[in-house]
Design goal:
The protein is of the alpha+beta class. It is about 30% helix and about 30% strand. It has 3 domains: about 130 residues; about 150 residues, Sandwich (Jelly Rolls), CATH 2.60.120; about 80 residues, Phage tail protein beta-alpha-beta fold, CATH 3.55.50. The strands form 3 sheets. Strands 1, 2, 3, 4, 5, 6, 7, 8, 9, 10, 11, 12 and 13 form a 13-stranded mixed beta sheet that branches. A 3-stranded mixed beta sheet has the order 15-18-17, covered by helices on one side.
């Protein structure tokens, strides 16, 4: 059962009878992982109440709509906002507001868009679940079909509480390792910006951070299909990637490519399930881009060493400065800076 304080604050927020201090307190409570189940329960209760009150006059319904979404009296919703992570900053209030908004819209879709249905029971697949991680945080998730997802730091995944009868579709912003439950009748589709990854059952790592120039899919077992709409040629492109292969999409060139990995690179992706990030002969700039996302820091790399090949291994629980110090020494470079802003300079690769 939800704790009494969370219930009181949640109902005040919905009724718009809260004070600013109460709103701040509620947003903090919602961001706590131990309250996730309680928040979902409160939303379910709100949905049930919405069914019971389905005969309210339209003006009363509009008042509820404005109350939940804090609109300016438009009485309608034109789009569902999508949460986007901001670089190097975690805004707890914004994240909490997004959670409430995503769940509240499910009620509004039912009450305003399904009036003519004979069945008065709200469809469960209208509910959208959003799971997010902050810097240096990871989460393991089990999707409705049994698919296992290990979400990397500074990432978010959105999926329906129940997959539909056609496919299993989720949206990823950031990075995650997927172990997809096999179901040949229902393709598993991951949308990341304008890239779609389609699988039936396999395991792979997908990295699609907004702040990085490339989207990468590394397959450990099985086979996946990567699809992309080429805006220059006005046609959709597809490539298939099997075990020990990697696909990359370059946002700057709009090109999709495939490359072979060695026998170690793909299996090393399995270690990301436990929070260990292994790099073997990766360019320094790529490792630094990832560390910026994982730890919420900024790293400037000198032009002479940005393409130096690096072998490194670290955990998200490590001190990032200690990791950077070891990497700088390995490439004969120098580390400077502190307070989450660092610089690595050097004359060239060893």
């Amino acid at each position: 059962m939800p704790n009494e304080r969370l219930v009181v604050l949640f109902r005040k927020y919905v009724d718009k009878t809260y004070t600013e201090s109460e709103k701040t307190e509620l947003m903090h409570l919602i961001t706590l992982e131990e309250n996730e189940a309680s928040v979902r329960l409160l939303i379910e209760e709100m949905l049930t109440k919405g069914v019971e009150e389905s005969r309210l006059e339209e003006t009363a319904e509009n008042d509820i709509l404005r109350s939940i979404l804090d609109t300016e009296g438009t009485g309608r919703i034109t789009a569902l906002p999508v949460y986007r992570k901001k670089r190097f900053k975690w805004n707890a209030v914004a994240a909490a507001s997004t959670i409430l908004l995503l769940l509240s819209v499910s009620l509004l879709v039912y009450r305003f868009g399904a009036r003519d249905e004979m069945d008065d029971t709200p469809s469960p697949d209208l509910l959208s679940v959003v799971v997010q991680t902050t810097v240096a945080q990871r989460k393991a998730i089990t999707l409705p079909d049994g698919t296992q997802v290990w979400l990397s730091p500074s990432s978010s995944i959105q999926y329906p509480s129940v997959f539909n009868a056609t496919n299993r579709e989720v949206t990823l912003n950031g990075e995650a390792f997927f172990d997809v439950a096999h179901d040949s009748s229902h393709p598993f589709i991951i949308t990341s910006e304008n890239i779609r990854t389609t699988v039936l059952g396999t395991s792979f790592n997908l990295q699609a951070y907004d702040n990085q120039n490339k989207i990468a899919v590394t397959v450990v077992t099985g086979k996946v299909k990567i699809s992309h709409m080429n805006l220059h040629q006005h046609k959709e492109e597809h490539i298939e990637v099997s075990a020990n292969q990697k696909a990359e999409f370059d946002k700057s060139t709009d090109l999709l490519s495939k490359e072979e990995t060695d026998q170690v690179a793909a299996p090393n992706m399995l270690k990301r399930k436990t929070g260990e990030f292994v790099y073997k002969n990766e360019p320094l700039y790529k490792l630094m881009e990832d560390m910026e996302e994982y730890f919420g820091i900024r790293i400037n790399v000198g032009d002479q060493i940005r393409n130096c090949k690096v072998v490194a291994s670290f955990s998200v629980t490590d001190n990032p400065e200690n990791v950077l110090e070891v990497i700088a020494i390995a490439i004969n470079g120098r580390l400077s800076g502190d307070n989450r802003q660092y610089n690595i300079e050097g004359q060239g690769c060893l």
